[in-house]
Amino acid sequence: MKMPVIKRLVETQTLESLVAAEEALLEEQELAFEVEGEDEGEKLTHVFAAIFILNHMQDHGSQFKDALREYTKKVRVSIS
Question: Model's pTM, two decimal places?
Answer without folding.
Answer: 0.93
